Amino acid sequence: MAPVKTEPRKRPKQSRSRVLYDALIEATGRLLASEGVAAVTTARVAELAGVSIGSLYQYFPSREALIAAVIDAKLERDMQELVPILDGLRLVALDQAVRGLVEVAVRYYRDETPLYREMVAALAAVDREAHVRRLLEGFDKVIVVVLEPHRAALHDGFERSAWIMREMLISCVRAAAREHPETLADGYLAARLEAMCRGLLGLDAA
Fold first, then answer.
1. Which in 51, 128, 129, 171 has the greatest CB count within 10 A?
2. Tens place of pLDDT for every residue, the chain, 206 residues?
3. Which domain holds residue 53?
4. How many angstroms separate the CA atoms of 25 and 69, rounded?
5. Chain CA centroid to CA 112, Å
6. Domain presence at residue 8
7. How far apart, in whole angstroms, are the C-alpha atoms of residue 206 and residue 62?
8. Which residues, at least 6 apart from 40, have a Cβ–Cβ distance to it below 8 Å?
């Protein structure tokens, strides 16, 4: 069996084509969030976007390519938004820095829980798992950079705790999106994660 194609056939070059391309990605995202991965078919996406199935196939060879495009678009948007936020965390007090790192991990799953839950569920099927893993591994370095100005207040070798923080934050947030989304919405998870991070870094968790 031939591997499923998860890349677009082509990218839009003109503004009218860009509108159509973006409409297909937006429609796919809405289907993912409202009905889940199983509901995403090329026919449903074309109908929801208000375009012909032929127009869809000009750009996307499969439902997997549509889902992958949603993930790629969200990752690009998230990274653009997070860079200035993370830069700013280097300039704040230690308590605010730890709280800010937790907020970075929680915010998208809290604000768009159904969509991010379905995106995570689809990662392997659309060949995006390794790419997302590489991005998340880079979060270790971000944690160290944010906390570096507060080295004197942290235990020796706090850098080694960065990967534990990353795994703890991402794993807990993903599990909450699947099983207990209410803990994302009411702030319970963020508060507990902040306390856990403080303990991991050798701070007073009170």
1. 128
2. 567 889 999 999 888 899 999 999 999 999 999 999 999 999 999 999 999 999 999 999 999 999 999 999 999 998 888 889 989 999 999 999 999 999 999 998 999 999 999 999 999 999 999 889 888 888 888 899 999 888 888 877 788 888 889 999 999 999 999 999 999 999 999 999 999 999 888 886 44
3. 15-201
4. 7
5. 10
6. no
7. 51
8. 28, 31, 32, 63, 66, 67
Residue found under tokens 């032929």: 54
Distance CA 170, CA 174 (A): 6
Does residue 115 belong to any structural domain of this protein? yes
Structural domain count, the chain: 1
CATH number of the structural domain spanning residue 79: 1.10.357.10
7 within some domain: no
Q: Is residue 9 part of a domain?
A: no
